[in-house]
Amino acid sequence: MDFLQPRSWAEALEAKAAHPDAVPIAGGTDVMVELNFDVRRPPALLDLTRVEELTEWSMDEGQVRLGAGVTYARVITELGRELPGLAMASRTVGSPQIRNRGTVGGNLGAASPAGDSHPALLAAEAQVELASLSGTRTMPVSDFYTGVKRNALEPDELIAAILITPPSGPQQFCKIGTRNAMVIAVSAFGLALHPDRRAVGTGIGSAAPTPRRAREAEQFLAQALDEDGLWDSRRDLPAGLAHDFGARVRAAAAPIDDVRGTAAYRLHSLAVMARRALTWAWDDYQKAA
Amino acid sequence: MTTPTKVPTGAPTETASTAEGRIGDSPLRPDGVLKVTGEFAYSSDLWMDDMIWGATLRSPHPHARIVSVDIGAALATPGVCAVLTADDIPGRNAVGLEHDDQPVLAERVVRYQGEPVALVAADHPEIARQAVKKIVVDYQVLPAVTDGRQALDPSAPKVHEHGNLVRHFKIRKGDPAPSAPVVVSLDFEVGMQDQAFLGPESGLAVPAEDGGVDLYVATQWLHVDQRQVCQALGLPPERVRLSLAGVGGAFGGREDLSMHVHACLLALHTGKPVKMVYNREESFFGHVHRHPADLRYEFGAEADGTLVYGKVEIIFDGGAYASSTGAVVANGATMGLGPYRIPHVRVDCYGVYTNNPPCGAMRGFGCVQAAFAHEALMDELADRLGLDRVTIRQRNGMREGDENITGQRIDSAAPVAELLQIVRDMELPPSASEQRDLRDLPGGVANSTHGEGVVRGVGYAVTYKNVGFSEGFDDFSTARVRLEITGGEPVATVHTAAAEVGQGLITVEQQICRTELGVERVVVHPKDTQVGSGGSTSASRQTYVTGGAVKAACEAVRQRVLDRAAATIGVAANTLRLDGAKIVAESGDVVAALADVLGGDAVEETVEWRHRPTQRVDPETGQGDAHVQYAFSAHRAVVDVDVELGLVKVVALDTAQDVGKAINPDAVMGQIQGGSAQGMGLALMEEILVRDGKILNPSFTDYLIPTILDMPPMKIEILEYADPHAPYGLRGVGEPPTISSGPAVAAAIRQASGKALRRVPIRPEHITAS
C-alpha cells in the first residue's frame, strides 16, 4: 500500500489526480477501522493531515468556511455560536480521543448514513466545496450523499471545505444511541429555524440509505409558522403542530432493521425527536426575542 | 527441571515489594501504575526476535461437513513456514474443560461459525493472514440447530452423535404436587453476554531443546490448560511448561483453550517461537460466552407472601461444545431460586448443544440468568399481594441455619434481610427534575430529552452465589513459600500457579505472607507450572483457596523456623513466635534473631490446601451439600427512563455485600464496582446477537459495554461476618455483584416504564413497544 503525504493543498490535489484510487485519510477514525477489520485494502492512502489549509476555518462573505480537516473538538470549542447544530452533533461523536482526531470533512468523505454531522449540515443547508486540479465546485450537502457510503466526489476530487451560513434562528440536534456515550446513532435528527428566510431546515440520520432532509415536513412547518404569523409574533406553537411536524419527519424516513435497532423504533424515535427538537427550538426563539 | 533457554521479553518477572500492607490493608498494587501508564506487558506484547506468527482459519458455517481441505496455495506462499490441519495433531484431537468433546482443529465436520479448521505460521502476521485465505475448504453445509429449546426436540439435527443434551439437573424437594393460595409465573429470556475482556487471546510458544515446548499465555488456570495441551500434543507434562503472561481481563472467558495448542503445534512443527494474537473480531469467535437462557418460573405463596413452592425450568444454550456447561447447569439449578427459604421445589435445568457459538464460564456462572427470573417473579408476587418488594424478600430471605433447596444447611452468616435493609436505607439520589446537566439524563449529550418523558424507577435485587468449585470436585491450591535472609533482611518468596488476571491476587499473596511471617519484603515468583496447581481463577475462589494455601505454607515455614529456634535455645517451640526479624518468647523478650536461626539456609514449604469437601448431589432429587460457601449481596438501582424513547440513565446503583473479611478493602471495592457494571451491562446493552448460528456484531462498535456516562458512582457497604470455615473468615467477592446488579436495574426500569420486560438486555424498542 502506498502512503502519500502531501504538504500543501496543491500537492494534495496533484496526488489525488495522479492516484485517483487513493483513499484520503484525515483523522482516520473511519478509514483505520476499515483497514484494521480488513474491510478494504486501498492501493494507496492519501494522508491529508499535513495540509494546513484544510485545518483552518474563516468567515468568508458572511459564511463560515470550515476547512475539511477541522476536528470535532475544534467545532465544539471554537464554533458553538456560529454553527450551533454542528457543535451539538460534534459533542455526540465518539470519545474525546475520537473528537480530537475526527473531522467533519472525513465524515462527509465516509458518507455513512449514521455519520453524526450530516443531520446538522443538512438542517443548516450547508454547501460542500469540492476541488480538483481542474477546478472547484460547490454543491448543497443534500446533493452530496448519493448512496450508502457513497458521495458525489469524482475520483480526482477532494473535499476542500464546508460552507455554512451562521444561524438566523435556533438550531437543535438529537441522536439516539443504546448507551449514553460513544455510540453510533440508531437515528438522529437535526433542525434549524431560518427566520430570516422564513424557512425550516431538517436532517435525518441513520434512517435511510443516505442522510436526507424531510422536505415536506420543512415546508409544512414553515408554512404553518407563516400562516399564523408566528415568525413575528413568537407566540406559543399551536397545539398539535410539533406533533404533526414529527409525524411528517417520520414519514420522510426509510429505515431498515439492523443490529442497532428496528425500523419501527427508528421511525418512532424520529417522530419524538422532531417534536421535542421543535419545542426546544421554539422555546429558544421565544427567549431570543 | 528444564528451564527454557530463552525467555521472551514481555514475560512476567518476579514481583518484589517492600510495601507495608498486611491483611485488611490496601497496599498499592504492583501492576497498577504500569497499567495506567501503558507500560504493563500483556500477553500480546510478548516478543522474541526470531519468532514467527500464527493465524487461524475458521469455519464460516454453523454446521457443515468438511469434504476436503487444500493447503497447497497457502503453503506455497512466500514467507509461510507451515500450514497445519487436523491431520497434523500428534496427540488426541480432543480437548475440553469437563468433556473432551472439542477438536483442536475441526475434523470432518464443523459445528459452529468460527470453529478453527487450519493453522498457518509465517514470518509476518499479515502474510499468515493472507495465506489463511488461500486455504481452500470444500464444505457441505448441514442443517443447523440454533435454538436451545428446539435442540431438545428428538427430531432436531444432532450436534454430536450422542445427542444434544449436555446435562439435565433435577431438584425434587418436598411435596411433588404442591399447591398454594397465590401462584405467580413468568417466562424470561436472557441474551448472550460476552466477557468483553480488553486483552485479546494471545501468547507465545517456544520450542525447547528437550522436544517439548514453553508456552507463555494469558489464562485463568495454567494446569488445566497444561493437561489439555499435553493431551493434544502427546507430550508428558514435564515437557509442556506453561507460564502466565500478562492477562488483560478474563471473567471466565479464558477458562477454555484458545490459541494454546495451536501455537504449540506450529512451534513444534517449525522449530521456531510462534506468537499468536487474535484481533478484536477474532476474539469474539475465540472464546466462550455467557449462556443465553430460556427460563420458566412459577412460585406459590401464602397470602402473607411466604413462599410455599418453586417450579423452574431452565434451558441453557451451550452452543457447539460442552465447555463448562455441566457446571453452569448445576449452578443454575442449585442456586436458581435465589437466597430464599422454599420448602417445596421442582427444578429441571438443561444444558444443550446447538450450532450456536460455544458458551461456558462467565462471572456469575449460571446464577446471573436465574436471578433475572427469580427477582422479577418476587416483584410480581409482591405486586400481586400488595406487599412491599423489599419486605417480601426480607420475609423469605435465608438466615443462618436455614436449609437451601438442595437440603444444605447454611452454616455461616446469611444476612439477606440486613443487606436489603441497608440498601433500602441508603440516601436516594436527587430527583430527576433537579438535574440540569444533559449528562445526567437518559441519552446524555445526545440531547434526546430535556426531561420530557423521564420517569424514575427504583428496583431491588438480592442474590447468593456459591464460592469455589462444587459437587465433590477436588478443589485445591498449591503454595510454595520460602523464607531466607537476603542482604541482612528476611525475605519471603511465594510461588503459586494461581492466575493473576487483574483482580489483585499478587498483592493478596504478599499481604498474607507479611501477616503470617512478619516480614516486609515479599517476592512473588512468576506464575507457572513449575509448582503445583493453583486451581482456577474463577468461582470467586482464589483469595479463599490460594490465599488459604499461602497461609498454610507460611504457617508450615513458621513452624519449622520456630522448631529450629526452640532446639537451639532449648525451649518448647509453642512458647515462641516469629515477629519479623526476631524470635520472641512468651515473656515478650527477643530470644533470637531470625538471621541467626536461619544463617545462610532457606526454609521452604510447599502445601496443597483444600477447602471443606463438597458432595455430589443425588441425581434424582438434587439433594446434597453441593457447595462449600455462599456469598450474599443486594443492590438497589435507581433509574431515569425516557419512557417515550426507551432510553435509560442509571442514576444510582448501590449495594451491600457480606465479604466475611475484606483482605484488601480497595480490591474488594474494585470487584464490587466492576462486577456491578458488568451486571448492569447485561440488563441494558451487552448482547452478542446471533442469527441462524452467526454472530452479527463481533466488534466493540456494536457489542456495547457501559461507559463512565452509563455507570453511576456507587454507594457500597461492606459487611464482614466471618465464615468460621474459611481462611481469615473471608468470602469470595467477585461474582455476587454481577448477579444482583442487573436484576435490580431491570426491576427499576419495569417500575418506571410499567412494562413487563421479560427479556434482557432491555432494548429501547422493548420499552417503547405498545
Textual characterization of the structure:
- The complex is a heterodimer of chains A (289) and B (770).
- By secondary structure, chain A is of the alpha+beta class.
- Among the domains of chain A are: 1-49, 2-Layer Sandwich (Uridine Diphospho-n-acetylenolpyruvylglucosamine Reductase, domain 2), CATH 3.30.43.10; 171-287, Enolase-like, domain 1.
- Chain A has twelve helices and 13 strands.
- Chain A has helices spanning 9-18, 31-36, 72-78, 84-91, 96-101, 104-110, 117-123, 141-144, 215-227, 230-233, 241-252, 263-287, and strands at 2-4, 23-25, 44-47, 57-60, 63-67, 127-132, 135-140, 145-147, 150-151, 158-164, 171-176, 187-194, 199-205.
- In chain A, β12 (187-194) and β13 form a beta hairpin.
- Chain A is globular and about 60 Å long.
- Chain B is α+β, with helices and mostly antiparallel strands and 770 residues long.
- Chain B is 25% helix and 26% strand.
- A seven-stranded mixed sheet of chain B has the order 4-6-2-13-10-11-12, sandwiched between helices.
- In chain B, α15 (665-684) crosses α16.
- The N and C termini of chain B lie far apart (68 Å).
- Chain A binds chain B through residues 33, 36-38, 88, 91-92, 172-184, 186, 259-262, 264-265, 268-269, 272-273, 276, 279-280, and chain B through 129, 279, 281, 439, 442-450, 452-453, 644-647, 649, 684-685, 689, 696-697, 699, 701-702, 704, 706-710, 763-765, 768.
Gyration radius of chain B (Cα, Å) is 27 Å
Helix/sheet category of chain A: alpha+beta
Strand content of chain A: 15-25%
Cα end-to-end separation of chain A: 57 Å
Most extensive protein-chain contact, per-chain counts: A-B, 34 and 38 residues
CATH superfamily of the largest domain in chain B: Aldehyde oxidase/xanthine dehydrogenase, molybdopterin binding domain
Query: What is the straight-line distance between the termini of chain B?
Result: 68 Å
Tell me the radius of gyration of chain A.
19 Å
CATH topology of the largest domain in chain B: Aldehyde Oxidoreductase, domain 4
The share of residues in extended strands of chain B comes to 25-35%
The proportion of residues forming helix of chain A, as a percent range, comes to 25-40%
Lateral strand order in the biggest sheet of chain A: 4-5-10-6-7
